[in-house]
Amino acid sequence: MREKILTFIEKNSRIDIKELAIILGEDELSVANELAAMEADHVICGYHTLINWDKTDIEKVTALIEVSVTPQRGQGFDKIAERIYNYPEVNAVYLISGSYDLLVTIEGRTLREAAQFVSDKLSPLESVLSTKTNFILKKYKDHGTIMAEKEKDERMLMTP
């Protein structure tokens, strides 16, 4: 039941417990108890809303920062990752494979604000060897949801 619950609420965290119980063929109390247990165990870490900021008049810039670091003896990447994720500007930190060690996502009001975070706070950290900042210009799909609208064909249909 746990995997089924997680699959459903990952796509729609606002689903009513009663409706979820019906879909799963379980009783409402069992589903509620399982959700509460997963929240207590930090399997479910939060409930979030996906917002298309391009549809608002609010300016937001998202940066994906690739970071190369020197792992610390006995602590690996965990200590530097903790230092980075404690900055309030940071939305996410991932340990990744490939050319870089960490992928850090931040949001700012402007490109300058995001770049300044990298130059003033991230790059000077003792274990950071290098950074590469990528700015998201447009989101086509995010968290499994298509964000880009198809352009409407405004041409008139001509028939012979």
List the helices and strands and how they pair.
Layout lengths: L1 H10 L5 H8 L3 H13 L20 E9 L8 H8 L4 E6 L6 E7 L2 H12 L5 E8 L5 E2 L2 E2 L14
Antiparallel strand pairs: 1-3, 1-4, 2-3, 5-6
- What share of the residues does DSSP label as strand, in percent? 15-25%
Q: Strand count, sense and closure of the main sheet?
A: 4 strands, antiparallel
Which strand order spans the largest sheet, edge to edge or round the barrel? Answer: 2-3-1-4
Q: Please tally the β strands and state the result.
A: 6
Look at the structure and give the mean pLDDT: 92
CATH superfamily of the largest domain: Lrp/AsnC effector binding domain/regulation of amino acid metabolism (RAM) domain
Low-confidence stretches: none
Q: Which structural category do the helix and sheet elements fall into?
A: alpha+beta
CATH topology value of the largest domain: Alpha-Beta Plaits
Cα distance spanning the termini: 59 Å
Shape type? flat
H-E order: HHHEHEEHEEE
Number of helices, counting only DSSP H or I runs of 4 residues or more: 5
The count of domains is 2
Oligomer: single chain
Query: What is the top-level CATH class of the largest domain?
Result: Alpha Beta
